[in-house]
Amino acid sequence: MPEDFEVPLEEGKIYLPDPEYRENAEFKDYTSAYREFLHDQDGFWHRIASELVWYEPWEHVKIWEYPFARWFEGAQLNITYNCLDRHVHDSRRNKVALFWRGENNRERIYTYEHLYKEVMRFANGLKKLGVGKGDTVCIYMPMVPEQVIAMLACARIGALHSVVFAGFGASALNQRINGAQAKVVVTADVSRRRGKTIPLKPTVEEALIDAPSVDYVVVLGTQETPVELVSDIEVDFHELMEDVAAVCEPEIMDAEDPLFILYTSGTTGAPKGIIHTCGGYMVGAYYTTRKIFNVTDNDIYWCTADPGWITGHTYVVYGPLLTGATIFLTELTPDYPDNGIYWKLIEEYGINIFYTAPTAIRMFMKVGEEWPARYDLTSLRILGSVGEPLNPEAFEWYYEHIGGNRCPILDTWWQTETGMHIITTLIGEPMKPGYAGKAIPGVVVDVVDKDGNSVPPGTGGFLVIKEPWPSMMRMVYQNEERYRKYWSTIKNCYTAGDLAVRDNDGYIMLLGRSDDLILVAGHNIGTAEVESALVSHKAVAEAAAIGKPNAIKGNIIKVFVTLVEGAHPSDRLTQELKYHVRQTLGPIAVPAELEYVDTLPKTRSGKIMRRVLKAQELGMDLGDISTLEE
Ligand code: PRX
Question: Rounded to the nearest 5°, which phi and psi values hold at 533?
């Protein structure tokens, strides 16, 4: 970990939203809202949780036995009751819950009633396969409505979903299936990307070669030709929903029962299974969607994330449904069939809230403002960004060309582990490009040195969270040690693994990771994961991966490789190694650059010093190299 360091604070332009935004915002003034939260923290969360429906109320808002928190203890609920039944029973029954757009102008529309019925049928189908409360179902699907249905069906019956992004390869999928002991895998024949179909089922077949926990694979056919089911364990998605009861009563869950597992990359080769629970996660997702993003039940809300990531869990699926809004979901990428497709969709569907990633914004910038200029984007009210720092140039472009110099931009900092937004600039507050903002009411955040002491403005340090919050992860699946590490790296704090600096007004700027994670296009990739994928190739002796700054993606992966005796560098081998990583981990982890070296810099105890490689690569000062072997 680095020591604290000076960061020059430049006074950039401040953006002031129209006063009307503040009038309509949930919080009219940050300072008083935050003070009110600090004055009675449990009362704050009690009031928010009371806006949702519970079968039994809680005895305690929170019980905090460092580093383990329990929220809404004694309460009982089912998140799908709040996402579906509640709306079906009141005036939202015939309202659109989900618009979906596919390639070739395919469209599907689900009302709340229809979605509710589909979820119940699929839930009964899962029960027929023997899935019950506490079992895990792995969902490896493209961005189609059935992906959302499968997630909600699991939650309906108290099974944990473990959604794996469909861009992961067979070995990464196998690791996640085995890690979570999934009983059923739900997948599709193919996913679609830029006019091409990408087979998913063969990847699942390969991932199942050594996956003894799996009893069944449910396959959704998305093409005209029916899917070929090749073994007894394969079941057709739609057939499973036939011959089942139409009604599936929600399983009554304790607030602290697990809701889902979601794997995230870690600093070792094995990803971490982050566990979120029913009650606290529901409250966090609802709170931030409703009161931070100000999503109302009149809104058409589009978060471009894949439900395979936490952003998709909280802000494609659960948050908007908890508020009774209309979700927009699409399998389309922003550049196909042309670079105007996203703006066309905003115009066509009258999207009010648009939430995307800096990588996408920088790509939009590159192709030019003439694309959004062709469409009417005046339906937009609020914009969001997540996943990596939103650089000032990208902020300004987004503000002007998408937001029409009108919409507030919420640059939200958070993590798989936090379950919900933690830092942003509340709607109506002055926005500072480059700065995410401040801790939202409900969480206590600080920037500290390695001993946990707050550092002054202009001094960089570690971003930490100082109090528990409802949607914090409760455990790393079957790895208490890794869970404890989050709360023990810096004493009395949750260490996020990010470096940050605060300005004189308390606005926080994120400065990147302090550990061995690389943020590629906003996705966390562990250096160790890439390295072990490379080392599993017979020609590779050792590998080291670093993140290299990139104008569009934030970072790209560069790897340094040493070869075994008898193997020789060649373009062909480079291609083969990249292909090998693609097959093992998936396209998102493929190194953009690969360099052959004779040796890697190591500490005397044999640890690879990626920091030295990175400094060398970027022409920076090598820093302290006293532990370097040679
Ligand atoms: O480094 C931070 C970065 O993404 C990490 C969390 O990644 P993940 O768990 O995959 O969740 C991503 C979506 C919530 C963080 O530790 N990050 C996320 N949002 C921002 C960010 N970095 C800077 N600014 C952000 N707004």
Answer: -65, -40
In the chain, ranges of CATH 3.40.50.980 domains: 79-97+114-258
357, 363, 364, 370: CA torsion to nearest 10? 180
Q: Which residue has the tokens 């605060």?
A: 502
Does the pLDDT at position 253 exceed 60? yes
Q: What is the pLDDT of residue 626?
A: 64
Residues with CB under 6 A from ligand 1: 264, 310-311, 386-389, 411-416, 436, 496-498, 510, 513, 519, 524
Q: What is the 3-state secondary structure (H, E, C) of 489-524?
A: CCCCCEEEEEEEEECCCCCEEEEEECCCEEEECCEE
Please give the average per-residue pLDDT across 537-553, as a whole number: 93
Q: What is the distance in A from the centroid of ligand 1 to the CA of 386? A: 7
Label residue 127 by pLDDT band (50, 70, 90). very high
Q: Tell me how far the alpha carbon of residue 274 lies from the centroid of ligand 1, in angstroms.
A: 15
Q: Which two tokens stand for residue 373?
A: 């200029």
The CA distance from 550 to 43, in Å, is 45
Q: 334-354, pLDDT tens digit by residue? A: 999 999 999 999 999 999 999
What is the rounded average pLDDT of the residues 255-272?
90
CA 550-551-557 angle, 5° bins: 15
pLDDT-derived band at 625, boundaries 50, 70, 90? low
From 165, 413, 509, 511, the mutation candidate for ligand 1 (largest count of ligand atoms within 8 A of CB) is 413
Q: What pLDDT was estimated at residue 524?
A: 84
Q: Tokens representing 303? A: 């978060």
CA 609 to chain centre: 29
Q: Where in the chain is the domain with CATH 3.30.300.30?
A: 521-618
> What is 79-97+114-258's CATH topology?
Rossmann fold (3.40.50)
Handedness of CA 501, 503, 508, 510 (dihedral sign): negative
Q: What is the mean pLDDT of residues 394-423?
A: 97
- Ligand 1 centre to CA of 87 (Å) is 32
> Residue 302, SS3?
strand
Q: How far apart are CA 326 and CA 320, in angstroms?
A: 7
Token representation of residue 429: 């507050």
**Listed range (5-19, 202-216, 219-233, 380-394) with the worst mean pLDDT:** 5-19
pLDDT of 251 strictly over 90 = yes
Q: How many CB atoms lie within 10 A of CB 113?
A: 16
Per-chain mean pLDDT for the chain: 94
- Choosing from 303, 519, 588 the residue with most ligand 1 atoms within 8 A of its CB, the one to mutate for a pocket test is 519
List all residues 6 or more positions away from 546 whose beta carbon is below 8 Å from its beta carbon.
518, 527, 557, 558, 559, 560, 610, 613, 614, 617
| CA 30 / ligand 1 centre spacing (Å) | 23
Q: CATH homologous superfamily of domain 521-618?
A: ANL, C-terminal domain (3.30.300.30)
pLDDT in tens, 499-531: 999 999 999 999 888 888 898 988 888 888 899
CA of 489 to the centre of ligand 1 (A): 19
Cα separation, 603 vs 583, whole angstroms: 31
pTM score, whole prediction: 0.93
Contact between residue 515 and residue 528 where contact means Cβ atoms under 8 Å apart: no
The helix (H) or strand (E) run that includes residue 162 is strand 160-163
Q: Which of 386, 422, 465 to mutate to test the pocket of ligand 1 (most atoms within 8 A of CB)?
A: 386
**pLDDT at position 3, please?**
60
